[in-house]
TrEMBL record:
Keyword Phosphoprotein in annotation: no
Cross-referenced InterPro entries: Bact_solute-bd_prot1, SBP
Record region (Disordered): 1-32
PANTHER family found in the cross-reference section: ARABINOSE-BINDING PROTEIN-RELATED, POLYGALACTURONAN_RHAMNOGALACTURONAN-BINDING PROTEIN YTCQ
Gene3D superfamilies tied to this protein: Periplasmic binding protein-like II
Organism for this UniProt entry: Paenibacillus cisolokensis
Protein name as catalogued: Sugar ABC transporter substrate-binding protein
Alphabetized UniProt keyword annotations: Cell membrane, Lipoprotein, Membrane, Palmitate, Signal
Amino acid sequence: MAVSVTAGCSSSSEPAASDQGGQSGGSDRSEPVTIKFHADGISFKKEDLDPIIAKFQEKNPDILVEFVPLNEANAADNVKKIDLLSASGEQLDAILLPDDRSYAQRAANGLLEPLNGLMEKEGLNYGEEYKIDTSIEGQYYGLPGTFRQWFVILNKDHLDEANLPVPTEWTWDEYLEYAKKMTKGEGATKRYGTYFHNWIDYFLLGLWNQPEKNDLVLADHTVNLDHPGVRKSMEIRYQAELVDKSATPYVDIISQKLTYRPLYFNQQASMMPIGSWMIGEVGGGDEFTASFKTVFAPMPKNNKEDPNGYSFMNANYVGVVSISKHKEEAYKFLRFFTTEGIPMMKKYLSSWKKEDTAAAIDELIQASKNPEMVDKESLMYTLNNSKPITRQMPVAYTEEINKAYSEEFELMLLGKQDIDKSLANAAEKIEKIVAANK
């Protein structure tokens, strides 16, 4: 499941690792070096990281690792917190960024240290180690962490109730029909056939299943708003929420600050597109009980004649902070974390090519409280019949692009303008942003 990306921006020179971080292994040091690892405290809890850190420190007794969980309201706020800590002079050594958009921007603004010099010193053959290419115009500013493949999770009880088969190939129009048939009730107790979260991912559903040219602005700064997948992305949400009323209304999502896990596990939503981090969760855990079986289906395609199974596959990213005084030590920890470390958690798939994926999936399922609630047959079919899109590295100003697009998309979801107006306004705004950044 390899993903190739092309470069979107460039940055600075090679790192001078030895004068910043000392020598890893540092037998000449009288005291161990302490590095800080800032990461999402929801996805990576202290109890998850402690065994990884202990194993690393056993192998590297001269490097102590302090995990600093970031517990802001969402991933975007965690990234803002990292920016604020950097500006305030807080010790930052190793950080985790949630997606390629935040990674590309922080590579461009100098927050992340280029790793090429450290990789060469180690003798690392990047392509033999990782599934996701993190390079930007030949420079590596980070390593890929947990591997995320998108698919659809469905409540098997609700499928059976509606006499619907488990999908193996379907279009978005068929997905919307499923959502209508599984919607039930009215008012506060209404069960919606589907749920779309408020991440940008859910504003691009008809574009991110395209093999190529699958972002709003391409690597060469071409505005891609006229791609039919952009309109399809709006049509999917408009039809489900405003016409069929088979998806949780966007106004409820933002006003009540709804999130996908409670809605799915409490059976208030029957299905949703989501990433492979949910494999280990749908069998239930300490926070949510799995009282029904979850089945899996490939991401829908836009048209019947389109190839089946194209899926957005990506990762989160870990990097060494450019202001760190311990760059080499931070790099050494992140190499361990992104190889041996993540599989130790038994919660996520990793981007490490040497991971035994089949065994990792079994461990994810068996680690849940009710593994019998995870339908392994449909899961393996979905994983084995999915193909990665060719994903470019986003342009450095992608966050600004996404904000402009999301504002117009939201006005459409709130019933304040139609799709044509939303597309026209978004295109006008994005053209100006691109012109200012060329």
